[in-house]
Amino acid sequence: MRLTSLEVTNVRNLQSVSLNPHSRTNFIVGPNGSGKTSLLESISLLSNGRSFRSADSKKLIAQGSDQLVVFGKVCAESLKESRLGISKDSMGNTNARLDGERLSKVSVLAKMLPSIAIDTSSVELIEGGPSLRRSMLDWGLFHVEHSYLDAWSQYRAALRQKNALLKSTASVTAHQVNYWNAVLERYGERLDTERMQYVDALIVYTQRIFKHYFGSDVDIQFRYRAGWNRHEYPKFADCLNSKVESEIERRSCVYGPHRAELDILWGGTLAKDICSRGQKKLVLYGVRLAQISLMLDRTGVSPVLLLDDLPAEMDKKNIENVTQFLTEFPCQTFITAINEQSIDDTLLAGLMDHTMFHVEHGTLR
Predict the structure, then answer these.
(1) How confident is the model at residue 340 (pLDDT cuts 50, 70, 90)?
(2) What residues contact 171, with CB distance under 8 A and at least 6 apart?
């Protein structure tokens, strides 16, 4: 997938910016606060309706404005061109469009323009809580398994209803809880099975990335844990049926895929506990590049890669490794840097087929 044009209006300090990106590599250069990261955020907004830096879209709207707008054209591997657009206003309303038609779901944009963003906070994938790793798995499955989004949406809808029931002031009965448990079991088993299969495949791809691109034989493993005790309850339904009274007492949905965890292991130990900051960045890149490779093999589609300040985030050797990956995989990539001098010669030499954009005070030149 390729972004062939981008128009940004009122995203942070970008009042009105347009560009025609290179099909492979795009360097976005500018001092801190110039708006270069805001360009990456704009692409993220167009891709999935939100920024990778802030969950509050109101903070993205330029000061003094009541609405932001991002418009772009994308070209699929089939060479078919589509027009995407998204706007968000200060009231919290979102309007997403595809070829001029209003969309009821922003997830349609994600299918049209998949993207992966890596910035300074992305190491939280290794250090942070389980919800970040669940989201990573869900992103991968959304793009490689066509039925996954439906199962995930149905499960989340039933989960919201069950939680509302458990937290209600009225007396809750087991019969009422079991109604929603039946729905959760139906879709929860599917989610859990597909996640386990995806993790098994991702382990293979991650180890391959580490060995081929990072020259490392370190034993990277994943350990997926369902959101319930599978040893005691092999079937999700058995757990739900057994824990009805417990959940009524706790007034919360305690068991299920929404409580699953993915442990990332380095030599058999949790990476977040044993790895240095540099090693955690290595694991982060290894896992995300593995997702790109897996997605490309399964679907023939590669996501747009957004790398915020890559020259400052990686050492020279690993910049060389990432550069080798980018030259061998057909990813359209956007890389920010403070200035041209900060861009490693390895990057420029390896990614000769590129365009350099300069941003200053929210203006592109």
Answers:
(1) confident
(2) none
